[in-house]
User: Fold F-box domain-containing protein from [Torrubiella] hemipterigena.
Amino acid sequence: MMSVHDVTDLMITSFDGNAVDKFGRDASPRRCLLLESVMPNRHRASSCKLFQMPSEILAEIVDMIADDKSSLSSLALVNSDCRYLARSCQFAEIRFDYSIRSLCLFAHLAKEVYEIKRGEVPLYAIGTCVRRVIFASDPGCVRAAHPELYSSIFGERRDAYTDERRNDLRKGSNTFYELARECSILAISHTMPNLEMLAWEDSYTVDQEFFKAISRSSAHHLRLSRMTIHDTFRLEPPLTADAWPLRSLHLNLNLAISASNSAESSISNSPDVKSKHPLSSFFGTLFQLCAPTLETLHWSHFDIKLHSQVVSLDEFPLAFPRLQHLQLGLIRIDPLTFSMLLVPTLKHLALPRCEFKSLKGCLAASEPLRDLESLVISCLPRPYDEMITFIKKHNFVRKLSIHDNARPPGEQGLDFLIIPILAEGLFRNLTCLSLQCGTLDNDDRPMDAHISEAALKTIGKIESLERLHLSVGFSFGWKCQWLIDHNAMRHSLATLKKLTMLAFERDTYRISAMPSMAPELYYSARLVGNDERELAEMRSDIVKNDQHIGGEDDEDDEDDEIWERAHRNRMLTEAEAYAALFPQLEWLLCGQRPIGFSKSVESSTAPRKAVPLTTQRDECYTFLQETFGLGE
Assistant:
């Protein structure tokens, strides 16, 4: 939960640790709109041969130079048609990050609003070119825009400021932010007829007026992340239109602290009344507007103060006739709401990460989802029975992802329940499998981090597999506990000849420079001995541009670079052994190194060569979620 109306919340950078997660996160290519879409009510002015081509071909041509800013700028200077064509690419996606550049851009777009309201057609309008808007204030830009406020709270001289002065600075900064946001919302809802996707990632509190505006935008794909609502309200006419034809909705929002405190007080005064979460009516009325058209729903919501309450949609007659992709994150919903979402049209399902006791009856009573292709279980609940029954009902899925975070290790559900199910040989359509066992926390208790030989042999018998992801030990943090044996792994999985992707996550290795040291320190210690120095000099054909991952306390960058090259070369050697075993293997992750393969140009029978796909270690968390789960 965030405080009410406080821009200082946006100044704080979220802590992501030292892990690198860049691979596969490249933004989707900006594809420009057709020329007629960005210059409505105007005809092409140019008679040159280029502009005699169909709009579709012109768009393809401009897409080819989408990342060449100088070429786009030059194109815009040729004539009016070229300017529209260039802008259709330059502004296909715009991002508000609170920088001076983005503030000026949205101020210009707000100006277009007033031109439209006066009945004018803006010349070289930017708004008509926009397909995607991402509103995500960068903490550094917010600090730069309000330096004195930042200094008064976080600076070394903060004690020199009186509370009155600090509050004045806060009030002025909040007013400035709200004005900038108002201009942005105005532009989004009035100047962007071709807008397809709106992503809002600022935690600054919003109210009814925000939803009144964005519900009237053209966007069919909406992502609301880490959002805070000032108070509870219902999304229904006259605040909104009768319908909100969204196709996809990513929803992660909470009540502001003041509203949560009020609701918590109400609960404590009526301890015998089991009330719904106060946001239930908000969610219910939102779904009433978009349920008929919704195809994708990602829904997360967790309120620390109101954790005992569940979201219930029991008063809303909802139907989701087109819903195909359902991902429930950390959320507490009642059985009726859960059953309402388990519709027959589902193709991809991620079950909620929450305490499952109240929902287990729904799993047992539900009919098989005959169109289901992907099933993701992010937290294997106890007791297992209903979940096991649910999994068996869907033995026709193509993708199965299960995370068992049992402790102590002797109670792991994978070995005793999931592996026996797979051993029955019922999952004949399975092409993608992800199995993770290990806790979400990072404590000091010992854990026997391994995958049993029997489990590996069972996996090795699923010959339909094309993608396999295995992870053992702590799910996050610097401690990697899985001392992997690649020789044993290759021996057990040798029959999986269709594998194209293979990922080992949270794996670690022995420290040859100090064998007595715990393997979980492998990545953090980065000790260099004779073996590392020798390994680092191998594969000289690879440019020595690998970057090491370290912090401010690194004293010997040269040793770190040697260690990184040695580790990279060790992983490349392992990768080539896998490539020799799996002829269709295209991608491998081991030792935090994503690796591809290249064929010899001289001989078609020569072994394939492993190629590093990054210049540094990368945990590929987002890529793995997208590939083996349903994404974030």
Observations:
- Residues 263-273 have pLDDT under 50 and may be disordered.
- The two ends are 20 Å apart (CA to CA).
- The first strand starts at residue 93 and ends at 96.
